[in-house]
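Renewal narrative, Specific Aim 1. Our central claim is that a sequence can be written position by position from structural information alone. The example that follows is taken directly from our test logs and has not been curated for this report. It begins with the structure tokens describing the chain, in the order in which they were read.
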């Protein structure tokens, strides 16, 4: 059995090499539409999607704000834990610079 090196695009129907398809998390790991068809679809629906996202954000403003606040709180905890030494060094340097700058300004 030979290797299959081409695939048929589900939108335009042309047979194209695998390199003309995006990778996806599906059965065969390759998109059903070729890259050019995906791009055309994205461009044609760009304005409509922009309007839908804007409307969604307007309707769910409070819900999004609460979610982002919680997410940022959790992210900040993880970041601080992971970069504890780096943050400590930064603030040590910052305090030292502030102390020396204040001495020069007060004279």
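The sequence written for that structure reads:
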């Amino acid at each position: 059995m030979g290797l299959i090196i081409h695939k048929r695009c589900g939108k335009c129907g042309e047979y194209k090499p695998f390199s003309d398809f995006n990778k996806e998390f599906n059965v065969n790991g390759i998109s059903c539409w070729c890259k050019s068809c995906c791009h055309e679809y994205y461009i044609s629906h760009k304005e409509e999607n922009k309007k839908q996202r804007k409307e969604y954000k307007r309707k769910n403003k409070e819900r999004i704000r609460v979610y982002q606040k919680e997410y940022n709180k959790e992210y900040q905890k993880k970041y601080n834990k992971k970069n504890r030494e780096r943050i400590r060094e930064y603030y040590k340097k910052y305090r030292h610079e502030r102390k020396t700058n204040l001495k020069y300004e007060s004279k």
